Amino acid sequence: VKMIIFSVFLILPSLFVFVNGGKLPEPEVKIEVIHKPFMCYRKSKYGDMLLVHYDGFLESNGTMFHSSRKQGDQNPVWFTLGIREALKGWDKGLQNMCTGERRKLTVPPSLAYGKEGKGKIPPSSTLIFDIELMEIRNGPRSHESFQEMDLNDDWKLSKQEVKEYLKKEFEKHGYSPNDTHHEVMVDDIFKNEDEDKDGFISAREFTYQHDEL
């Protein structure tokens, strides 16, 4: 989850299957609020960037398959809500959440890793997550983010402007800058977001959000 934040931060509109003009019903995520702060100044919404700590368990036997609190560098992780950057179950289960709130999500296989499974997660597994929301920031598709990236105020983003933004964000979060890696990420971003292929990402191309979000 950790390094996906900016490599896909402008990418991946949600895909839905339509039958007879309507969406196929999807199983729901069971949400239990473990803790809610007394004061709530802002609630999470699609497009926001969320910083979370989480523990993940298999419902079948209670085995922990990952924990940001206990494994790796033990730092919380960033992801953007609503663009399939994390599991579908997270996109559904972490809406309207306050900073400092803690939730238990029970995520069915179709909103997790499906019939294939992944790594330590067997096929068709229902997953349980204990998730605490540490911080909410304006998402990468927000008008504020566009203005921050548009260094010359011409209402379009060049590859150099996007590269500078990525470099700054990586440094802000403690990652060493890697120009080669940034070049690849910028190419991926423009491949997906520069719809008219003019070499720039316009304000409309940047801020446009698909109806599914």
Automatic annotation (TrEMBL):
GO terms for cellular component: endoplasmic reticulum. Residues 137-172, 181-213 form the EF-hand domain. Pfam families: EF-hand_7 (PF13499), FKBP_C (PF00254). It is an enzyme of class 5 (isomerase). GO terms for molecular function: calcium ion binding; peptidyl-prolyl cis-trans isomerase activity. It catalyses: [protein]-peptidylproline (omega=180) = [protein]-peptidylproline (omega=0). Residues 47-137 form the PPIase FKBP-type domain. InterPro entries: EF-hand-dom_pair (IPR011992), EF_Hand_1_Ca_BS (IPR018247), EF_hand_dom (IPR002048), PPIase_dom_sf (IPR046357), PPIase_FKBP (IPR052273), PPIase_FKBP_dom (IPR001179). It comes from the Eukaryota. Keywords: Calcium, Disulfide bond, Endoplasmic reticulum, Glycoprotein, Isomerase, Metal-binding, Repeat, Rotamase, Signal. Residues 1-21 form the signal peptide. Its EC number is 5.2.1.8. Monomer. Homodimer. Interacts with type III, type IV and type X collagens. PPIase which accelerates the folding of proteins during protein synthesis. Has a preference for substrates containing 4-hydroxylproline modifications, including type III collagen. May also target type VI and type X collagens. This is peptidylprolyl isomerase.
